[in-house]
Amino acid sequence: MSTLITQKHKRFPIKLFFVSLLSLGLFACGDNDDTPAIPDVEEPMEYSYSVMITNLTYAQPLSPIALSLHNDTKMWMIGESASIALEKLAEGGDNTDFLSSENNIVSTSSESPLPPGASVMLDIMTIDPVATYLTVSTMLVNTNDAFSGLTGVDISTLTIGQEKSWNLSVYDAGTEKNTEAAGTIPGPADGGVGFDASRDDTNLVSYHTGIVSKDDGLSNSVLTQAHRFDNPAVKVTITRTK
């Protein structure tokens, strides 16, 4: 009888020990862990570009350069009417409306006109994966409504460190007659009026036929042979940097 009592007393503390452990939650099962998993947050990809614009003309300053990235669209088309934004840029060098176009996903501008023979570098960045089309535009300011640029160019295949270049011709916005007359040229050759809401030309964008000048028989022109330009008038080089 005394032996049995001794055995019972030996077993009881062990059972109590395991009950205590369970009550304290020290035996946890990994399969029942209710802690919510924290999902990995993927950083958006950044697309960065450096764009070099060079003025190739002899005596045609370029208005501040407008640069934008957007989806698959074009800001002008040969044989179609210019938008008001393009008219303002091509007649007076004002790129404000052009930069704020609803088509643009991101845009930027150089701070000042670009003198003949000079270059300017503009940087632009986006995290929007559909912003893969490039537009560059500027006015030749010693003209009535001549502009140069490229629009809706697909740059989606550029890899980091890769560059691509274009030599650009000059367009006529078709919104103002090319009279070259005093008071109609906004550049330093005249200091005349820029944008005028009325349109007195073909109202169609076309390739520019060039400057005539007073030296070549246009007696009322304020321009000289120095203001004439050859194509290409502008060089653009884009490099993907990130």
TrEMBL record:
Keywords: Signal. It holds the Pfam family Spond_N. The keyword Repeat does not apply. Gene3D superfamilies: F-spondin domain. Residues 1-28 form the signal peptide. Residues 68-177 form the Spondin domain. This is Spondin domain-containing protein. It comes from Colwellia echini. The lineage of its organism: Bacteria, Pseudomonadati, Pseudomonadota, Gammaproteobacteria, Alteromonadales.
